[in-house]
Amino acid sequence: MSVLDNWQQWKDFLADRLHQGENQGMGKDTVNNVAFEIGDYLAKQVEPKNDQERILADLWSVADEQEQHAIANMMVKLVENNGTK
């Protein structure tokens, strides 16, 4: 089963990657830029697997670049306290 199939697993996966990056010295700006790049890739290349991902994809598709950065930043905030740490 892919981490994209289950919303909670996806959030935990993102949180684990976030914590790895922070532990390796990535700053907040770098984390947010990587989140934007991941969001852009997913929106263009990956079919949403659940309702939450479909909502994010729909929002991403109508957002301008500044709004997409805001969505990515909110995803970072959403998962900051998730994952296995």
UniProtKB/TrEMBL annotation:
Gene3D superfamilies: Protein of unknown function DUF3243. Pfam families: DUF3243. InterPro entries: DUF3243, Uncharacterised_YmfJ, YmfJ/YflH_sf. This is DUF3243 domain-containing protein.
